[in-house]
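step: validate -> pass
step: tokenize input -> pass
step: predict -> running
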Amino acid sequence: MTGRGKPTTIVKAFVANFLIFVLSVGAVLAADLTNPPPAPPSPAPEAAPHWYVKLGALGALDQSWSSLFAQQVVEVLVPGVGLVPVGGAGPQVSLVGRGATYSSIFSVTFVGGYFFTPNWSLEVAGAVPLWLNIKITGFSATPPFSGASLSKLLPGAVPITGVYHFTQLGALQPYLGAGIVPSFQFAVEDGFNTGGFFAPTVGLVAQAGSDYMFNRNWGVFLDVKKLFIWSTGKSTGLDFGPPIGTISAAATIKTTFQPWLFSTGVTYRF
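step: predict -> pass
step: emit ->
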């Protein structure tokens, strides 16, 4: 009887240890199932671009109103010729019924801007300067006659605007802006008025438009600006042409310059 008890005891010990091992493995597996390993962190979203540039075509449609002022021209009687202007005298007086127009132009525009937030940006615009022809309007029996070129102006204007971008529409992103527009001259070419000069000034600008972004970086734009510039030009002489030539006389042109600027082209953000 004693011999038979030992195998039974050994079997019982083996079964007990096996059950303990199985229960231990089950507990470990259960702990792994209830506490899965942490998922790897997802990559951080790519930051939106802050800088942007635009390049495109520009059309400037003139809308302006000008008042002209000049000294009275002194004339002398030359036998066999008649009255000949020799110079200006006295204060400048308004040339009632006379005005001036500025020609419209087509050019290339470029814009640089910076997003301070996803919706607000500050941008500066410019364009390749082209000559504006300033022509006199209104009837006169003496020079300059209607349609004559008073002078040609090579202007510079730099609209600086704060812009709010509407981003709720996805790829289509309309915007509104407003700001200032410093303006100045690069050069003045003589016409009927000679020795001309336009004083630098600062006007106002209103802006509306839209970007359409194909992806994070590239898109196209359509932009409209309305400028409000109050400009003053002065000249020191009047050119009556041969045989009289140029006489010394002061003249002034005061212009409320309100052109529309239309532009379209490519947007790049980075």
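step: describe -> Helices lie at 2-34.
step: cleanup -> pass
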